[in-house]
Amino acid sequence: MINYDGTKEYPYLCTVGTLSIYEQEFNINMIADVFGKIDTSTTNAEVVSAEFVVDRLQAVNGGKALPKTTLKLIDEAFPAVASHVIDYTIDNWSAYLRALWAMLKTADMVNNTSNIPGFNTWQFQVSAIDMTELSHIVVDSMQKGLFRPGVTTISQ
Questions:
Q1: Is 144 helix (H, G, I), strand (E, B) or coil?
Q2: Would 150 be classed as within a structural domain?
Q3: Are residues 76 and 96 in the same domain?
Q4: Are residues 76 and 59 in the same domain?
């Protein structure tokens, strides 16, 4: 409950369906709109040196010296300030929900079952969800199911 106007307590709830309501009302994704870009860097920005990069790369290369061309590229690119910006505006968060629903619905149809209702009903049945984890699952599933190298062949 929340008393936002000083008169009484109102119930409020944030669910998967909230994202659609927000997007329909305001024509913008709620997560991108609310969180936007978060800059977590401090006034003492972390600087990554060329020596640090060379040491790390040599360590994963079994201690062997790096090729001269690689060293030259590192020298040109570093030192560099480490980025500490999380940008929630890049992703279309509601698309992950729609994609998950479509995958659930696909399995439902392939298995000849009727467990998954239409999207509008389903989204209000889902309560709390980890959107970050969901984004990883959806992208991974799409890569495995839709972007498998070597599966599709074209003969002429």
A1: helix
A2: no
A3: no
A4: yes
Neighbours of 140 (CB within 10 A): 10
CB neighbours of residue 98 within 10 Å: 15
**pLDDT, tens digit (0-9, with 9 covering 90-100), for 99-135:** 899 999 989 888 899 999 999 899 988 888 888 888 8
Contact 88, 36 (CB under 8 A): yes
Tens-place pLDDT, residues 17-70: 888 888 888 888 888 888 787 776 655 667 788 898 899 888 888 888 888 998
Nearest in space to 98 (alpha carbons), one of 116, 110, 85: 116
pTM comes to 0.56
Q: Which helix or strand (DSSP H or E) is residue 87 part of?
A: strand 85-87
Range of the domain at 67: 47-83
Complete DSSP assignment for 42-76: -SS--EE-HHHHHHHHHHHTTTPPPPHHHHHHHHH
Residue 3 lies in a domain: no
